[in-house]
Amino acid sequence: MQLDFVLSTDRCMMTNHHGKEFLGFLATGPAVGIPESVWKWLACPKMEVDEYGRPVQAPYGLRKVEAALIDAGFKAAIIDPDYIDRYLPTAKALFVSHHDYFAFGPPSSTWWGITKKEPINYKSFMKFITSPAIAQAKAKGLKILAGGPSTWQWLWREDMLEKVGVDTLVDGEGEKVVVDLAQKILDGEELPKYVYVSDDDTPSVDEIPIIKGGSVNGLIEVMRGCPRHCKFCSVTLRSLRYYPLDKIEKELQVNVRAGIRHGVIHSEDIPLYGAIGVLPRPEPLIKLHTLVKKYYKTIAWSHASLAAVRYAEEKYGAISKISEIIFDDEQKYLGVEVGIETGSPRLAREIMPAKSSPYKIDEYPETVEEAFKIMHEHHIIPAGTMIVGLPDETEDDVYKTIELVDNLRPYRSILVPMFFVPMGYFKNKDWFTQVKLKEAHIELYRRVFWHDVYWAEDIIDRFYMKSPIYYPVRLALKLFLRAAKKKMKEIEAHLEQYLKK
Ligand code: SF4
């Protein structure tokens, strides 16, 4: 197989995390309590490939770019990182994509800042992008283009831009612009160093191509954009587009043909599929879940907003109706990531005034609690992220978040506080030494730790990975939890002595 364009990324992206998306979070930290090789296997096992080194499942964003290039008539394919050396000597360009190139994203930078150790995903990407195969091909004229949601991170690593020899950064939805760039490469034209995808170049729903091969964990997109306009979020800059059901069905069929029968439906807010503004509507949600369940034995949601969960259930009983569609002998729970962000109404009003809509922002903690209660009752297990350390955060804001964490204790969930790291820090190579937690933050992390251990044990025992093939993974997770609990008790003992002084 001859390729002009090779699309690839490192192992922490080119993996399906044993079919459990949530295990991917482990790659955002350093190994704890178990050897690094076991940790990496747990978080990022190798992907099955065909005879050409094409992965059976690949990141959805790369699949979209691959589809755009193939539809435009180019010889392009996604290649597993272990096989790129077969193609790079004769390829014209390498397209790389990542959601956290240099581990500046919130979970990675949080763990890096706290542990002062490089996260697994950082090490993995550095090994990939500085590999001899890429360096040798680059020396012979290979073009390198980098895109994906964390493209901005290259701007803080000019040293790496130079070292790797990246020709073009593509910032934004790339499906339209990559076609022009690919043509420029074949025509020997000069490439722009940086492409910001403007509204004009953002694809309409009809212009978004259909993936050609299986996506990691059967992830398929059902809408783009978000109407809530939180101040810290770039998704909000994108226009809102819903995929029609027939388009969704075509991607489901691609995945089923690739042997994938378990999948994640992706949008920034699944309960807002087909909504009017921030008001969910039951009909599109019922149709969507009925369709997806026709193809997938089990479903997960990528993201949901807590206000939409609360409203959909309180107004229409829509969460109950969806539960009736998806739960059966194959599926006993549904996983989702939710953004809690803060328990402080004051801070919420400042950074995300529409996060609680249609409920008042001053009621935000109540909205979070109500949504967690609804999800608990319907066997929906959320991973709730929080942002701490924002520049205008007060101690009182953190204590409000601690209060919320305490109030969420009855509800099955995993909480993930992520530390805000100002961009300027990343200019400094030792940025992580500047990250300093205050006493209130330490207390928050301590409460979250015990919440998570309590519910992680329950989730592993009652819901997660029940099949015998997962026994080694379950065992490794349990060993990790045991080691983490022991470590935390030691830390707490030190803290008590320190505070008594
Ligand atoms: S609700 Fe989530 S996706 Fe939407 S703007 Fe806020 S943070 Fe971004």
Structure description:
By secondary structure, this protein is of the alpha/beta class. It folds into two domains: 5-201, Cobalamin-binding domain (Rossmann fold); 219-464, pyruvate-formate lyase- activating enzyme (Alpha-Beta Horseshoe), CATH 3.80.30. The chain contains 16 helices and 15 strands. It has helices at 36-43, 60-71, 106-115, 120-129, 132-139, 158-164, 177-186, 245-257, 282-295, 306-316, 318-326, 345-351, 364-377, 395-407, 439-462, 471-500; strands at 5-8, 76-78, 93-97, 143-147, 168-171, 194-196, 220-221, 223-224, 241-242, 262-266, 298-301, 303-304, 334-341, 380-388, 414-419. The strands form four sheets. A six-stranded parallel sheet has the order 2-1-3-4-5-6, with helices on one face. Helix 9 links the parallel strand 10 (262-266) and strand 11. Helix 10 crosses helix 13 and helix 14 (395-407) packs parallel to helix 15. The longest helix has 30 residues, at 471-500. The chain is globular, with a radius of gyration of 22 Å. The structure holds iron/sulfur cluster.
Task: Write out key terms for the chains shown.
four-stranded parallel β-sheet; globular; binds iron/sulfur cluster; Rossmann fold; pyruvate-formate lyase- activating enzyme; 16 helices; 501 residues
> Counting H and I runs of at least 4 residues, what is the number of helices?
16
Bound molecules: iron/sulfur cluster
Trace the largest sheet across and list its strands.
2-1-3-4-5-6
Q: What Rg, in angstroms, do the CA atoms define?
A: 22 Å
According to CATH, what is the topology of the largest domain?
pyruvate-formate lyase- activating enzyme
Structural class: alpha/beta
Strand content: 5-15%
Fraction of helical residues: 25-40%
CATH superfamily of the largest domain, called what?
tm_1862 like domain
The average pLDDT score comes to 92
Q: Any idea how many domains?
A: 2
Largest sheet: 6 strands, parallel
